[in-house]
């Protein structure tokens, strides 16, 4: 898949959950478009991956391609660690694009969903979006700069699924956080939007956390998805570049579905 002709030269982009799946694809595409990329994740590489050229940590692959990137080990559920990532971006002059992508998935029937599960997902899927949005917006406003905040939601923010009570609730919250932030920041020169992936071929589809996507086990790929297949993380990356670009300068508070047609059924 080719890189769209977007340019983010001299801009700084933070991608949480940038070591794998959707986040990794997004970070690489911004790097290819000339951005300074700060990859924030709890580990440099996904569990089980080695150090082959193809599996190099995201920031090293961006550097190898001639870009500028760094890695900040971050537990996004810890507000102090997440705020520190935004501070780290000042090395490049401050954040221009904040991608709140980190997410986790745990499925269970409603009657078996306990408070601990909800609290764990809330910390990663919701609180990190609020803290990341707030820290990035404050940095932009302190520098009197415009900017863009992008959140990874899910079609689960709109569509209820059996055994997804906690996950769907957190993704619904991400959608509303996006809209409220867009409303409050619109006149300050900061746009806030979200991408809603459908069934994407990432580790979360196997129930291992890492990205926000609909669980592959929840759908019949042939029957339920009009395009008849899962999406690839690379097919989502361009959506983030578009929403961060000047082509989307009049777009804010929007939830962009990238789901192979699932939500039109």
UniProtKB/TrEMBL annotation:
Domain Ketoreductase residues, every copy: 11-198
Annotated Pfam families: adh_short_C2
PANTHER family from the UniProt entry: 3-OXOACYL-[ACYL-CARRIER-PROTEIN] REDUCTASE FABG, SHORT-CHAIN DEHYDROGENASES/REDUCTASES FAMILY MEMBER
Annotated signal sequence range: none
Family: Belongs to the short-chain dehydrogenases/reductases (SDR) family.
Protein name, entry field: NAD(P)-dependent dehydrogenase, short-chain alcohol dehydrogenase family
Origin: domain of life: Archaea
InterPro entries, per the entry: KR_dom, NAD(P)-bd_dom_sf, SDR_fam
GO molecular function, one term: oxidoreductase activity, acting on the CH-OH group of donors, NAD or NADP as acceptor
Organism: Halogranum rubrum
Entry keywords, A to Z: Oxidoreductase
Gene3D superfamilies: NAD(P)-binding Rossmann-like Domain (3.40.50.720)
Listed SUPFAM superfamilies: NAD(P)-binding Rossmann-fold domains
SMART domains on file: PKS_KR (SM00822)
Keyword Oxidoreductase: yes
Keyword Oxidoreductase: yes
């Amino acid at each position: 898949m080719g890189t769209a002709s977007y340019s983010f030269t001299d801009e700084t982009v933070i991608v949480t959950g940038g070591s794998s799946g959707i986040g990794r694809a997004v970070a690489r595409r911004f790097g290819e478009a000339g951005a300074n990329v700060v990859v924030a994740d709890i580990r440099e590489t996904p569990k089980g991956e080695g150090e082959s050229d193809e599996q190099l940590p995201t920031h090293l692959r961006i550097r190898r391609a001639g870009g500028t990137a760094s890695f900040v080990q971050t537990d996004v559920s810890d507000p102090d660690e997440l705020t520190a990532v935004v501070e780290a971006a000042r090395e490049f002059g401050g954040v221009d694009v904040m991608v709140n992508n980190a997410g986790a998935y745990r499925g269970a029937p409603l009657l078996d969903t306990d408070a601990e599960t909800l609290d764990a997902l809330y910390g990663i899927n919701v609180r990190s979006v609020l803290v990341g949005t707030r820290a990035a917006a404050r940095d932009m406003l302190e520098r009197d700069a415009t900017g863009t905040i992008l959140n990874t939601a899910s079609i689960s923010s709109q569509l209820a699924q059996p055994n997804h009570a906690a996950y769907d609730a957190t993704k619904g919250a991400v959608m509303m956080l996006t809209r409220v932030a867009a409303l409050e920041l619109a006149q300050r020169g900061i746009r806030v939007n979200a991408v809603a992936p459908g069934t994407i071929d990432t580790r979360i589809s196997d129930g291992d956390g890492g990205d926000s996507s609909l669980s592959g086990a929840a759908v019949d790929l042939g029957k339920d998805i009009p395009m008849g297949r899962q999406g690839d993380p690379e097919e989502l990356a361009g959506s983030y570049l578009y929403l961060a670009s000047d082509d989307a300068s009049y777009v804010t508070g929007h939830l962009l579905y990238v789901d192979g047609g699932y939500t039109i059924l």
